[in-house]
Amino acid sequence: MPGPPLPFDLDLLRTFVAIADNGSFTRAASRLGLTQSTVSLQIKRLEEGVSRRLFDRDGRELQLTPEGEVLLTYARQILKLGGEALSRIVTPELMGLVRLGTPEDFATTHLSEVLACFARTHPHVALQVNCDFTVNLLDDFSKGKYDLILFKREPQGPSGGTRVWREVLDWVASPRLVAEAGDPIPLVLSPAPDVYRKRALSALDVAGRDWRIVYTSPSLAGLQAAVQAGLGVTVLPTEMIPADMVSVSGCLQLPKLPDTEIVLYQAPGHVSPAAELLAATIVAALERRVVAPAVFVP
Questions:
Q1: Residue 292 has pLDDT above 50, yes or no
Q2: Contact of 137 with 98, CB cutoff 8 Å
Q3: What is the pLDDT of residues 24-45, one digit of tens each?
Q4: Which of 115, 211, 261, 267 has its CB 3.0 to 4.6 Å from that of 185, i.e. a possible disulfide?
């Protein structure tokens, strides 16, 4: 005998996840294009369906209940599977080659799951992903070698493209590093014209700090291996600092590094539907990761 109908209407789950991701009923309503009363009603229906409270509304802060935490994990999976199923049914003919250029560190940290999900959903689309320095990506893009590129630029840099990420940079090293006060800062950096290299040398020069480059590698793995061995200091986004490295900005009194931003460019003129969909998928996935579910305000 079939059991009772499940209360997991996709619209209700989408609203529930939006509240968790945006931190409030009001912001979730704005993002979904709904009224706040509609959002409140949908959460009431969902809570009645599972016979459990999903949010604690005591005082000003709004927190997920333990049951809400459990449902949030499953809700994300259900919505993800629903989206994949719809894509396979509605656009089963989507095919072709999409050429994507991206910085290596960004691809490793942020894009692997996005690209894997896209490949599963659209098995007839061939992804050709190349990792390179920003200057090379832009040069090859101008020559028509890419459909899409992600690259790093100054936050107040040239207009154009879609800003998808902002990187906060820090000086990092291994606890094994031995650096004497007054000695030139030993640096582990990518070769020119890497953006982080430019950031590091410019900041040290402005601060009047002596430096010396002790190790250069075009590979992120090579740089991290050298830093882990205690050879010197490198520059990484704060969210990419490995567990066996530490920030040394304070103890070495190093200057603050300006942020960088990651921008998506799409080839001018007509691009394939597959390239357009991949661009939209990347932007949407990174937008979800930017939102911080810190304090809930109803």
A1: no
A2: no
A3: 888 788 777 788 889 899 999 9
A4: 211
Distance CA 55, CA 68 (A): 7
Nearest to 257 by CA among 206, 187, 184, 194: 206
Placement of tokens 């990506």 in the chain: 137
Say how far apart CA 73 and CA 21 lie, in whole Å.
12
Stated pTM of the model? 0.62
Pick the closest to residue 285 from 73, 79, 99 (CA basis).
79
Q: Which of 104, 94, 153, 93 is nearest to 129 (CA)?
A: 104
- Tracing tokens 């070698």 back to the chain, one arrives at 145
Bridge-based pairing of strands 148-153 and 260-266 is antiparallel
CA 255, distance to chain mean position in Å, is 25
Angle at 173 between CA 171 and CA 178, to 5 degrees: 120
Cβ-based burial of 265 (10 A; exposed 0-12, middle 13-18, buried ≥19): buried
Residue-wise pLDDT for 63-99, tens only, equals: 889 999 999 889 888 888 887 777 667 665 678 899 9
* % of the chain beyond a pLDDT of 70: 89
